[in-house]
Amino acid sequence: MKKRGIIDAQRRSFAAAGRGIGLCLSAEPHMRFHTAAAVAVLCLSPFFELDAVRYAVLLLTFALVIASEMVNTALERITDVQSPTYSAHAAAVKDIGAGAVLVCAIFAVGVGVCLFHSAEGWARVIRFFGVSLLRQLGGLALIALLVVYVRPGPTALCRRWTRRRQPNHSERNSHS
Description:
Layout: H1 2-27, H2 29-44, H3 52-82, H4 88-115, H5 119-130, H6 133-150, H7 154-165, H8 169-174
């Protein structure tokens, strides 16, 4: 009986964490930018023949940037609740949180430069996409998908899609 309660508590805990990730992804364009950048980098990584240690560094770097963005988002929200009007202290808290994300992102770029500095790797990327129009279109489609994911984001797209699919008032009346 106790084991079932522990499993239920763990399930609720994971569900809450998943909701937090979803909230951050749906509400924060910077979070979507960081995740899109991670996807793009992961798509390019096979061309650079990274070993397990380098992939571990890459994944830890992604985690650091994304987690710092989530902590910054939480700081901003709690600061907004605690200080609904302008406050120099609240502004400083938000600026410090944003600065933490910027530091992580700058160092993530540095990690990327270290891991992807290989001229042979970039030559493999160019050869892969240069030989086939279909591959070029696939690469462009991925870029377009990532841009749409970042801006306006999945939530806005879903709202637009459902509004577009719902018949307007005059259409409903004409069918009756």
